[in-house]
Amino acid sequence: MHNSDPYSKLDNPAWWALTGVQQQFAVGTAHVKRYKRGILPFAVYEPGYEESIQSLNEWFQPGETFFLIGVLPPLPAGYTVIKELPCVQMVLNKEVELPAAAIPITQLTASHSNDMFNLIDKVQPGYYEKETWQLGNYYGIWQHDQLVAIAGERMRIDNLTEISAICTDPAFTGRKYAQYLIAHLCNTNLQAGNIPFLHVLQTNERAIRLYEYLGFTTRRMISFWQMMYEKK
Q: Coiled-coil stretches, from where to where (predicted)?
């Protein structure tokens, strides 16, 4: 059946990422997959195969936490919901119009992986792992040889790119560094024919207002479920 919604894959973004552009980062079965350990703590099931969630067991270690995105399936024994994180899913269809950044924006590489992890883990612990940077392009702003702001790409699906890990060291907020980085990432993607999308906590009204100011529009609400696997 033809789906007229060009963004319909965003209803289950991790599935379409792990079975497409990012399949080299996937482990799992035909119907259940996760990002490799150390890359991203996301797991997913194919739409219509909710019962296959049981086969995740062999891909998780007891005590390991991870996220499921979207509709929560009936959970087999051994899985616990830690919390539900209702998020606003937003997309951007036109380039961000901002004055040029007043400070250099640097593309980050493997040599910066510790700087990247330390900054993101300080501001947004739990969503970014040591090797998450492998999923896409990451850009940063430095001050006095210290990485103080970052933004990058996480899930990628066909011509859709998730903008993620947007954070600024608390000592350097208020300087529009996040705006410069988001604009750079989004415009680079749009010029390449990719539509940027992102997820932001429904309770983070300040961030939502910023994204709307930059041109993002809300597509839907979608929940991230933080889970723990505890062996039966």
A: none
pTM above 0.90, yes or no: yes
Q: With beta carbons less than 8 A apart as the criterion, state whether 197 and 162 touch.
A: yes
Tell me if residue 81 falls in helix, strand or coil: strand
116 vs 102 pLDDT, higher one? 116
**Sequential DSSP letters for 136-198:** S-EEEEEETTEEEEEEEEEEEETTEEEEEEEEE-GGGTTSSHHHHHHHHHHHHHHHTT-EEEE
pLDDT digits (tens, 9 = 90+) for 72-96: 998 988 999 999 999 999 999 999 9
Looking at the chain, how many residues does it have? 232
Instruction: Compute the distance between CA of residue 30 and CA of residue 76 in angstroms, rounded to an integer.
Output: 18
Element at 64 (helix H, strand E): strand 64-69
Predicted confidence at residue 1, as pLDDT, reads 44
Q: What is the DSSP letter of 51?
A: G
Which tokens hold the place of 229?
Answer: 């696997």
